Amino acid sequence: MGKNTGGEAETVDQFLDSTLESVDSAEALVLEVAQKAGFEEEDLHKIGMAVRECMVNAVVHGNQYSAHKKVRVSVSAGRNQLTVSIVDQGKGFELSSLPDPLAEENLLSNSGRGLFLIRAFMDKLQVRRLTPHGTEVTLVKYLGQK
Amino acid sequence: MSVKLSTRQVGDVSVIDVSGRITLGEGSSALRDTLRDMVSKGQKKILLNLGEVSYIDSSGIGELVSGFTTVANQGGQLKLLSLTKRVKDLLQITKLYTVFDVHDDEAGAVRSFA
Q1: CA proximity to A75, closest of A4, A18, A126
Q2: Which of A108, A117, A120 minimises the CB distance to B65?
Q3: 10-residue stretch averages of pLDDT, chain A, 146 residues long
């Protein structure tokens, strides 16, 4: 784990294996920082859920459980916001190419709701394709917003 | 805490009491196995009691939908009982709340299958 306390916000970095256990580890790491930053129970639940969904995407769809690939999780808490970055080493995807889970024809689909839930629970979601490979997903939650 | 499932029979309705977390991995596969087992035994009236479910993720939601369609395809019905606020909220934002037949009390839910 790496810590950078040079600026106002403390950033904690972890490189995690591409396993489902890492989903729990990332959730615990982020929630510890979020709790210290002053987020309350309902927001902690939403943050935890968004991080889990994002980690599942990174481990399952991005890195496809590869033992040779890692997921980097960075979390920083500023005065008014929590920022989480999750980077995988997969092939990447286009956000616009994902089907709308609320469309009539997709309502009874068994999958495809992860990013939708992340959007619903966080205040900002940004997806960036990295070169030569990988995806960085950045999640932001503001303190004290409903 | 992971998921814990137990089954019981109330008349001709099979009730599955679920507690814990329904998430990708052990939680969602345990639910899938239990539902498949019931369907393979020809049970067509299944009530899923989620009153003790503390957490459900998109994979868990997918299992609920999958169970719903599997049971319906066999001519049966899968209904939900005692949703916690968080699970109810999740089903509402994913527009699934109106897809499922959701009940707050068990006796009423059992009667609704008749």
Answers
A1: A4
A2: A108
A3: 57 96 96 95 96 96 97 95 97 87 93 95 96 95 82
The DSSP element (H or E) to which B66 belongs, if any, is: helix B58-73
Q: What is the mean pLDDT of residues B20-47?
A: 92
Tokens in use for B54?
């503390």
In CATH, which of 3.30.750.24, 3.30.40.10, 1.20.1070.10, 3.40.50.720 is domain B4-112?
3.30.750.24
CA distance A77 to B3: 32
Both tokens of B102, joined, read: 């959701």
Q: Do A108 and B90 touch (CB under 8 A)?
A: no
Confidence of residue B26 (pLDDT cuts 50, 70, 90): confident
Q: Is the CB of A102 less than 8 angstroms away from the CB of B90?
A: no
Amino acid found at B96: L
In Å, how far is B25's CA from the nearest CA of chain A? 8
Which range marks the domain in which residue A67 is found? 2-142
**Which stretch of A81-90, B13-22, B25-34 has the lowest confidence by average pLDDT?**
B25-34
- Which value does ipTM take for this structure? 0.87
Of A20, A101, A117, the CB nearest to B24: A20
pLDDT digits (tens, 9 = 90+) for B63-100: 999 999 999 999 999 999 999 999 999 999 999 998 99
Which residues from B are below 8 Å from A24, CB to CB?
none
Residues 87-116 of A with CB under 8 A from B: 101-102, 107-111, 113-114, 116
Residue extents of the structural domains in chain B: 4-112
Q: What is the CATH number of the domain that holds A54?
A: 3.30.565.10
Count up the domains in chain A and report the number: 1
Is B56 in the A-facing interface, judged by CB distances under 8 Å? no
| The one-letter amino acid at B99 | V
